[in-house]
Amino acid sequence: xxxxxxxxxxxxxxxxxxxxxxxxxxxxxxxxxxxxxxxxxxxxxxxxxxxxxxxxxxxxxxxxxxxxxxxxxxxxxxxxxxxxxxxxxxxxxxxxxxxxxxxxxxxxxxxxxx
Amino acid sequence: xxxxxxxxxxxxxxxxxxxxxxxxxxxxxxxxxxxxxxxxxxxxxxxxxxxxxxxxxxxxxxxxxxxxxxxxxxxxxxxxxxxxxxxxxxxxxxxxxxxxxxxxxxxxxxxxx
Lengths: 114, 113
Fold this sequence. Notes:
The complex is a heterodimer. By secondary structure, chain A is mainly β. Helix content of chain A is 0%, strand content 61%. In chain A, strands 2, 4, 5, 9, 10 and 11 form a 6-stranded mixed sheet that branches. In chain A, a hairpin with a 2-residue loop joins β9 and β10 (99-104). Chain B is mainly beta. Chain B has no helices and 11 strands. In chain B, the strands form 2 sheets. In chain B, strands 2, 4, 5, 6, 9, 10 and 11 form a 7-stranded mixed sheet that branches. Chain B is globular, with a radius of gyration of 13 Å. The interface between A and B is medium-sized, with 24 and 25 residues.
């Protein structure tokens, strides 16, 4: 089955700096890569996603890059703000039996220091 | 437009009791997924259901755990004879089709004493 590794497990940055979280996956058939933000006591919230036919996607201060050859993808947050502090999960997914079975990474706890 | 709803938000059970967790998907969504999250860990897939059908239960323990998504009403995750190791946050997600983004509910935090 799919295996997703995520690094680092914790990340502290100064407000205004950039944060980068990296993930690798094992199944070359994976074709959909969502990123989720989870605040304390809440469910994961989809913040951005990328499909395998695209190398990069950007949405305001958040961007995701995908390297299918190397089987890794990254989340970039620029101009970080205290409200960006949360746990971030990457995930990889492929159509299996007609649906997207999602495998999650182990999470990165991001702390933005004011 | 209400999001995915889960109840109860917190559930305390003694060892040996049954736990019933409910999930109401977003309006128009007929696909439901259940995940378990242990403290300081990621989400682990348990089961995927469509209305009245279990599509994939490969992540769900074969003993004590069951899930359903009836034609009417919420999806139910049932854990019989709970043990301390069942203590975790259980999240459900829904999507409008099989090949689409999943939207998560706020979770049910189960504590087994």
